[in-house]
Structures are given as structure tokens and as C-alpha cells.
Design goal:
The protein has about 100 residues and is mainly beta. The protein is built from two helices and five strands. The longest helix has 9 residues. It starts with a strand and ends with a strand.
């Protein structure tokens, strides 16, 4: 089976909208059902933001390092333990 996903988002800098983006992905293999979710990406370094600004597309897994956190893991992070380029938090999962 083949699956797909699509989403739209906004880049916010200093409390203001700086750009609009969309995400598209496909997958294949054994899968069934429908799922919905939301996520937010936190670009933690200037180099991660520069990569986004200077590329014609942003592919998670190529370019800056990214860490995906679930709700439980996110509660144990502090400003001294956050040291990767990008953090992704998912929420509103259903399905």
C-alpha cells in the first residue's frame, strides 16, 4: 500500500510571520488506517535557520540535525540540554 501526507505551516521569527511552508511525504509498505497529527519545528541555531533560508526545499533527515521528541521526553529538556539544530514536537495525534 502507498500512503501520503500533506501539511501547511508558518515560519515565525521574533513574533512575526516570516514565511509560509508546506510539507509533503509519501511512504510505502504494509500500512492501514488513517492518522492525523500536528507538529512544530524549533530551529535552535542560526545555521539551521540559514539552511532553511538558503535552500529551495527542506528535507528532514538531510541537512541540520533534528531530534524528534515525544511528550514525555520533552518534559525533561532544559536550556542546558537542548544542543541540536532542530527539535520537532508532535501533538494532537489521532487515529
Amino acid at each position: 500500500m502507498i500512503g501520503g501526507q500533506y501539511g501547511e505551516g508558518v515560519l515565525r521569527k521574533d513574533g512575526k510571520t516570516d514565511g509560509y511552508y508546506n510539507s509533503v511525504a509519501t511512504s510505502y509498505g504494509l500500512q492501514a488506517g488513517v492518522q492525523s497529527f500536528a507538529y512544530v519545528l524549533f530551529l535552535m541555531t542560526d545555521s539551521a535557520l540559514e539552511y532553511l533560508d538558503n535552500s529551495e526545499g527542506f528535507e528532514i533527515g538531510s541537512g541540520p540535525s533534528i531530534v524528534v521528541l515525544d511528550k514525555g521526553a520533552a518534559t525533561s529538556f532544559t536550556t542546558t540540554t537542548l544542543n541540536d539544530d532542530i527539535y520537532a514536537l508532535t501533538f494532537d495525534q489521532a487515529g
